[in-house]
Write a structure and sequence with these properties.
Blueprint: E1 17-20, E2 23-26, E3 34-35, H1 42-59, H2 71-87, E4 100-106, E5 109-110, E6 115-123, E7 129-136, E8 144-151, H3 185-195, H4 208-215, E9 223-231, E10 240-242, E11 249-263, H5 273-276, E12 279-280, E13 286-299, E14 310-323
Parallel strand pairs: 12-14
Antiparallel strand pairs: 1-2, 3-5, 4-6, 6-7, 7-8, 9-11, 10-11, 11-13, 13-14
């Protein structure tokens, strides 16, 4: 179990304008190393997220969630809301209100775009804290949540902070200093699930456990199943991470997973109503589901004695379906 994140309402932020005797000089976020988000802005970002999230679910409006989500979280959220709209086309005013309290913000200093920060907060949706990674693609773009992990309080990483209270962002390329490059986590994970080869990942429900579960469904008297795993592509699905106190990195990444289930002779697929809401075609003999996984993992340093990646949390959602 990991140590608690220091109880910070937010990391201290430096001003975006540096004053001098001759006037003021703007610090450009694309060149200068500055806090990813200002002290007084981070709580507003979280509030805007919860307000819009709740409105989207009360109205069952998939487009509304685009205002506050992006990347893998948006892919899952839009499909979930499309399914909700199919069940409740007029919306659901009785939808439970999400409340996030006791928020703790972890803010890195960064140059260039995109920028990101992490917040973990108590949720009224169960015992776990919601750990959200918010990202922003430019100075005029809104903050949107790209990743979500559900962790118990003692599972929330204890992130390393400098003397000013800022976290340390992780490089995602060859200079990451990690056992697995963050920009290759998605492809490494997809390859492992497809082949079972490699030792990059520790055994657990998201790795060896998932492969074992799949084997049970490869061929049954009623159907057989094929799996295709592939890495996530595109800037909206880019990995991001921070350094914890005990070394290595905590990295967020996403991946795609397709599952084709073909019915045996005499049987016909019966996809659930919520799957039908995002399905094209008619399910006469087969259904192909596309899922997005969003994961948070601990990646050891390249020279660590144990160099296996350990999953902290993995969330998944069906984002599309095709009937044949």
């Amino acid at each position: 179990m990991m140590g608690r994140l220091p109880r910070l309402k937010w990391a201290a932020a430096t001003a975006a304008l540096v004053l001098s005797v001759t006037g003021c000089m703007t610090v450009h976020g694309e060149r200068e190393v500055i806090p990813a988000v200002a002290e007084d802005e981070a709580p507003d970002v979280l509030k805007r997220f919860t307000t819009t999230y709740n409105k989207a679910w009360r109205t069952a409006d998939p487009k509304l969630i685009e205002q506050v989500e992006t990347g893998p979280l948006l892919a899952i959220g839009k499909a979930d809301l499309a399914a909700e709209h199919a069940v409740n086309p007029a919306g659901n005013p009785r939808a439970g209100t999400l409340e996030l309290t006791d928020a703790r913000f972890t803010i890195p200093q960064q140059a260039g775009w995109p920028k990101f920060f992490v917040v973990d907060a108590d949720s009224n949706r169960g015992p776990n804290r919601w750990m959200l990674l918010f990202t922003r693609t430019g100075p005029d773009a809104p903050w949107r949540a790209a990743y979500l992990s559900l962790l118990s309080d003692d599972e929330v990483p204890d992130f390393a902070l400098d003397d000013e209270g800022y976290a340390q962002p992780v490089r995602t390329g060859a200079d990451s200093g990690l056992a697995v490059r963050p920009d290759r986590l998605s492809s490494t994970y997809a390859n492992y699930l497809m082949t079972g080869e490699g030792t990059a990942f520790s055994a657990g429900p998201a790795t060896s456990g998932l492969r074992a579960e799949r084997k049970k469904h490869v061929r049954t008297p009623k159907y057989w199943t094929e799996y295709i795993d592939s890495p996530a592509r595109g800037a909206d699905f880019a990995p991001a991470g921070l350094r914890p106190k005990d070394g290595g990195a905590v990295v967020f990444f996403a991946s795609y997973h397709r599952q084709k289930q073909t019915a045996a002779k005499g049987y016909r697929p019966t996809p659930p109503e919520r799957v039908q809401a995002v399905m094209t075609g008619k399910a006469d003999k087969a259904v192909t589901l596309t899922r997005v996984f969003e994961s948070s993992v601990r990646v050891p340093a390249a020279g660590a004695p144990d160099r296996q990646v350990v999953f902290l949390n993995r969330l998944e959602g069906v984002t599309s379906a095709k009937g044949e």
